[in-house]
């Protein structure tokens, strides 16, 4: 479900008009693409259900209410529901997702410095893009990332 936070009534502001998109925390896509030219092998992965794993603070979910019409024929019967997870379509959602990923990546910094460097410089939204000089190096990095993602967060899928 996409929450249309840019919707507004005549003469009123939308939710997105009232939110700060915040600075971008993702690695620039340009830098990721250039890295593909430097190395012979690359791999990518996705964080499984990233946005759906991030809960919203109790004090903000009131701003994410919406009407739900269980019976489309009867518009008088509706429910008022609230988003409890980071919704798609809200200006601040990309920042919240990136900040959460960065928070979890910091857990690797002490124990697995090489994994930390890879993860910290290779995410674009919830996708990991990385390169290596050899097949074995790429395989070792991807196996290490998967093993550690089971110990920490985030959990990778589709490597």
From TrEMBL:
<protein>
    <recommendedName>
        <fullName>Reverse transcriptase domain-containing protein</fullName>
    </recommendedName>
</protein>
<dbReference type="InterPro" id="IPR043128">
    <property type="entry name" value="Rev_trsase/Diguanyl_cyclase"/>
</dbReference>
<dbReference type="GO" id="GO:0071897">
    <property type="term" value="P:DNA biosynthetic process"/>
</dbReference>
<dbReference type="InterPro" id="IPR043502">
    <property type="entry name" value="DNA/RNA_pol_sf"/>
</dbReference>
